[in-house]
Amino acid sequence: DPDEPAVGDFALMRDMGVNAIRIYHHPKKVNTVLLRDLYNRYGIRVIMGDFLGKYALGSGASWYEGTDYNNPVHRKNMLDSVKKMVEEFKGEPYVLFWMLGNENNYGVANNAKRNPKAYYEFVNEAAIMIKSMDRDHPVGICNGDLTFLDICASFAPSVDIYGSNAYRGK
Question: Is 159 exposed, middle or buried (0-12, 13-18, 19+ CB in 10 A)?
């Protein structure tokens, strides 16, 4: 409002109790200077994520082809993307934990919905790789709701945190 002093989004976020935000290291370059400021001045940390083939990001697949979690080329490309993320950000004080995916189980531009076992086995492989590179931060997954929760539990035991984007109500 015109009669209120400009304090900036970060101060407003802190004042409303925000202590962490989730971002993805791709497809746009992350502004590490800004994130350091977010942490140092406002105490807000970052959950750093990789889309893990959602929307075909990081897999090398086209949107229409979609990421195939059984395709060795797609798998290699995604593991390379995750590795790049961890190498770039593991020393940053603002990193709270690593996040894999974003509702991949809904199957938009990927085959996780049609082949959840392959997807969660791949998630587990990525989590193991992350932990071999960085023992200081846990690894989470971001699923859409609770779909395939039992398959995730069976085939991705190296994941430490289960995150769910759940949409309830009208």
Answer: buried
88, two tokens: 């770039």
Per the listing, tokens 């060795």 go with 72
Question: What is the rounded distance in angstroms from the CA atom of residue 25 to the CA atom of residue 95?
Answer: 12
Nearest-angstrom CA–CA distance, 105 and 120? 9
What does pTM read for this prediction? 0.93
- Rounded to whole angstroms, what are the CA distances from 32 to 29, 45, 46, 94? 9, 12, 11, 9
Q: Two tokens at 115?
A: 């082949």
The per-residue pLDDT for range 56-100, each reduced to its tens digit, is 999 999 999 999 999 999 999 999 999 999 999 999 999 999 999
Q: How far apart are CA 76 and CA 96, in angstroms?
A: 26
- Among residues 46, 104, 57, the alpha carbon closest in space to that of 80 is found at 57
Burial bucket for residue 81 (CB in 10 Å: 0-12, 13-18, 19+): buried
